[in-house]
Amino acid sequence: MRYLVTGVKGQLGYDVVKELEKKGHTAIGVDREEMDITKEEQVRSVMEQTKFDGVFHCAAYTAVDRAEDEVEICRQINVNGTKYLAQVCKEQNIPMIYLSTDYVFHGQGEHFWKPDGEEIAPLNVYGQTKYEGEEVVKQLLEKYFIVRISWVFGLNGNNFIKTMLRLGKERGAVQVVNDQIGSPTYTKDLAKLLVAMIETKQYGTYHATNEGICSWYEFACEIFKQAGMKEVQVTPVASDAFPVKAKRPFNSRMSKEKLEENGFERLPSWQDALQRYLKELETISS
């Protein structure tokens, strides 16, 4: 099978391509240089030149705070770009996996958000445009997987873990918010699930993160513990200690029962994922 993967230079797109190839599929990874998804003619050109069996749409505008000022650019990428891809998928009758986010929810309380039937109330421009992208996919396609994820980390690109390791070495102390609760997501584990999904017809909306929940503070403590950097002082603080332009959800707990109900394996615990990720980082740097 031959699949198109958008956002190949990002954390997830990079691992999806590797996982597809590992499973014997042909993966065509593209980024802005090869296919600007905000230009419909470029999307059509790429997708009509090569016969694809499905699309993994990993590309997105993810600069959450900057999106508050760059609303139209954010919408062009997250909504219009998604629409152009979905239109061609519909014409070619092929499935599409669209990666969405916990930011589509208002993030209050301690409720585990379910993938279907929940009240959608994004707090910021990024969350709103990702939700609008979801709606475009649902309106245009029958063969789709909408997969909401959170707190992503992978080898390719920057993430919270890399930032903590850098700050820990540079400063020996960090302050981390302890009132935002969610689940980290390792792109290598997620990529395996996404490839397994597209090989089925269990279409619909899903949540997929590594198992277990934590605060960013607890995540940071575990990072330094597993990295053997116990001397780093980690201080818990409230979110308002770090004023940002875009509001963040306090509650990013997401229900994942639907994965099992449809025959998919849940991802390993986030602590296990962190351990494997740190080993990979160490291997690369050595």
UniProtKB/TrEMBL annotation:
SUPFAM superfamilies: NAD(P)-binding Rossmann-fold domains (SSF51735). Catalyzes the reduction of dTDP-6-deoxy-L-lyxo-4-hexulose to yield dTDP-L-rhamnose. Residues 1-281 form the RmlD-like substrate binding domain. Its EC number is 1.1.1.133. One of its GO terms (biological process) is dTDP-rhamnose biosynthetic process. InterPro entries: dTDP_dehydrorham_reduct, NAD(P)-bd_dom_sf, RmlD-like-bd. Keywords: NADP, Oxidoreductase. One of its GO terms (molecular function) is dTDP-4-dehydrorhamnose reductase activity. One of its GO terms (cellular component) is cytosol. Belongs to the dTDP-4-dehydrorhamnose reductase family. This is dTDP-4-dehydrorhamnose reductase. Pfam families: RmlD_sub_bind. It is an enzyme of class 1 (oxidoreductase). Pathway: Carbohydrate biosynthesis; dTDP-L-rhamnose biosynthesis.
